[in-house]
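W.,

You were right to be curious about this one. When I first looked at the sequence I had no strong expectations either way, so I just let the prediction run and decided to look at it fresh. Below is the sequence, 143 residues in total, followed by the output.
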Amino acid sequence: ADLFGQKHAGAIHGKALTAWASSAVAGPMGLAYLRSYSYDNAMQDLLHTVEAHDASALDRSFGVSISDTEGIQKLVDAKTLTIEKLLELAPPGTVDPTPFLYDTTCYLAAALMSVAALSNLAIRPLDLSKELKKMETLQKIKA
């Protein structure tokens, strides 16, 4: 408020609140999307592993063939076909992808926090004498 005056404090505060509110909505939505993307990739990897191990296992257990992508998607959406159930059909020694579902999400969150920290470090105080001279010059031009 020292540079812009009390006259603009409300507008500055409004812009800050708008930015915070939008980040409060967009942040969790983006992170949830990344987690969902990781889950879908893990399911596809496990489906390919199960298919390579025993092509008819999915058909015997869930009544759906590996080539029926629409049927598989319906089972996944209904939470009938899960990572845990696919691991039961997968060959022994198959790595459970569940602990790694949030990796992409955490990497992105860390990258965003790093950008924010670097941006915060880049903030420098204004040279008030220069800014006041610029303002005086602009006022002279307008007059």
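Here's what jumped out at me. The chain has six helices and no strands. And, maybe more interesting for your project: The helical segments are 9-53, 57-62, 69-77, 83-89, 103-122, 128-142.

Coffee later to discuss?

I.
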